[in-house]
Specification:
10 helices; TIM Barrel; binds 3-phosphoglyceric acid; three-stranded parallel β-sheet; globular; 9 strands
Length: about 200
C-alpha cells in the first residue's frame, strides 16, 4: 500500500495535532496543494477522530490516517471514521491483533532491534522508527540496514525542515514524519498559505 501511495505523494508524513476541528479541512487542503498527501492526524486531541472523517470526505486527494493510536479501541474508532492507515508510537499484542484483523496499512512504532523483529514476524515490514532522534538518529538506520534489509522505516521524532532531506537519503527510509510542517501557532492564526508554501518547498 505504501508503495502505491508514494507514487503520488511526497515521502513526508506531517504529524497533525488538531485542536480545533474547523482547522482540519483548510489544513489538509493546504498540505495537499503542496503535494503532501500522506496525512497523519493524531488522536491525542479530542478533535482528532472527527478531523479524520472531515478530511476523508472533503479532501479526496489526501491519504489520511490516524496517529498516536495506542489501543484497540482507538484503532476501531479510527477505522470507523475512515482512516486509511493507522500509526502507533510503539506496538503491542492488542494492536497487532487489531491490525491483523483489519488487514490494512498499519505502521507499528519500533525503537529497538527486538521490536523490529516482533513487528516483522507479524508481517509488518513498514514501521515507524520512533523517537528517531532520541534513540540515536541516523546511525540507528544504518545499523538496522544490515540485519533488517527487508524493513522500511518512517523515522519520526526530532525530524525538521533542516534535516528531513538527509534522513530521506537512507535506502531503508520510505518516508519521514514530523510535526514541523504544521506548527500550532500557524494553525491558530489560520496561516494556510504559509503551510502550503512549506509543503510545496518539500
Ligand atoms: C509523533 O507523534 O510522531 C511525534 O510526536 C512527532 O515528533 P516531532 O514533533 O518531533 O516531529
Amino acid at each position: 500500500m505504501w508503495d502505491l501511495w508514494l507514487e503520488r505523494a511526497k515521502p513526508i508524513m506531517p504529524v497533525m495535532v488538531i485542536e480545533d476541528v474547523a482547522h482540519a479541512i483548510p489544513l489538509a487542503q493546504a498540505l495537499v496543494a503542496g503535494g503532501v498527501r500522506l496525512l497523519e492526524v493524531t488522536l491525542r486531541t479530542q478533535a482528532g477522530l472527527d478531523a479524520i472523517k472531515l478530511i476523508r470526505h472533503a479532501v479526496p486527494e489526501a491519504i489520511v490516517g490516524a496517529g498516536t493510536v495506542t489501543n484497540a479501541m482507538q484503532f476501531e474508532q479510527a477505522l470507523a471514521k475512515g482512516a486509511q492507515f493507522v500509526v502507533s508510537p510503539g506496538s503491542s499484542t492488542e494492536l497487532f491483533e487489531a491490525a491483523g484483523a483489519w488487514g490494512g496499512a498499519y505502521l507499528p512504532g519500533v525503537a529497538t532491534a527486538s521490536e523490529v523483529m516482533q513487528a516483522r514476524e507479524r508481517g509488518f515490514r513498514y514501521q515507524k522508527l520512533f523517537p528517531a532522534m532520541a534513540i540515536g538518529g541516523e546511525s540507528v538506520l544504518s545499523a538496522f540496514s544490515g540485519p533488517f534489509a527487508d524493513v522500511h522505516f518512517c523515522p519520526t521524532g526530532g525530524i525538521d525542515a533542516h534535516n528531513y532531506r538527509q534522513w530521506l537519503t537512507h535506502r531503508n527510509v520510505f518516508a519521514v514524519g514530523g510535526s514541523w510542517l504544521t506548527p500550532a501557532e500557524q494553525l491558530q492564526r489560520h496561516q494556510w498559505s504559509t503551510i502550503q508554501a512549506m509543503a510545496i518547498s518539500c
